[in-house]
Amino acid sequence: MTLPAPTYDLVLLLDPQAEDSARAKIVSDAVKAIEAQGELVRQDEWGERALTYPIDRKASAEYHLLQFHVGETALLEGLDRTLRITDGVLRHRIIKLKPGTPEPQSMGAAPPARPADTADSAPAASSAPADAADQPAAAEQPAAAEQPAAVEQPAAAEQPAAAEPDGEPAPAADPS
Q: What angle do CA 53, 62, 103 make, to 5 degrees?
């Protein structure tokens, strides 16, 4: 029984200051190489996005995702080498996906909107009991005497005397 070819992700971070034709050529060359030795499954353009940290003094990059199937690792080695030496590629990453990995999100669309507050998610204050009988009795609440006492500091007379610069103890203060 032959196993299906593994799925790989290729993420490209391209220099947004490079010419549009140069960026398009980088992506099209990668697609042609993949289609020549494998099967292109998905191609997404995620657009220009801010980088977490600057790369080559650039604060943003144009992101592309290519997913593909390939059985031979020669394609992976060739893509890696080509993308490492190509001007206009800030970073690239090729990873093998585990079986069962979910589909990537479409980065072009806005994230799903959160539903408005409904009656089920009303604030807790509105669901508080209205009757005084539902409130816990005063006997159930801890009394002030049961609270832990604060740690007391020793009086000045109980504290050890500070040493003088010459090593002699300082005279104790007169408590009166």
A: 95
Structure-token match 């007391």, residue found: 152
Band the pLDDT of 99: cuts 50, 70, 90.
Answer: confident
From 21, 85, 41, 91, select the one nearest 61 (Cα to Cα). 91
Pull the structure tokens for residue 58: 């650039």
Mean pLDDT confidence for 69-81: 90
What whole-number distance in Å separates Cα of residue 96 and Cα of residue 9? 7
- As a whole number of angstroms, the distance between CA 88 and CA 24 comes to 11
Q: Match 């490079």 to its residue by tokens.
A: 18
Query: Coil, strand, or helix at residue 44?
Result: strand
Q: Which residue type sits at 23?
A: R
Q: Which two tokens stand for residue 38?
A: 């494998």
Q: Is 29 exposed, middle or buried (0-12, 13-18, 19+ CB in 10 A)?
A: middle
Domains of the chain (ranges plus CATH)? 7-96 (3.30.70.60)
Residue where the block lists tokens 């500091």? 153
Average pLDDT over all residues of the chain:
75
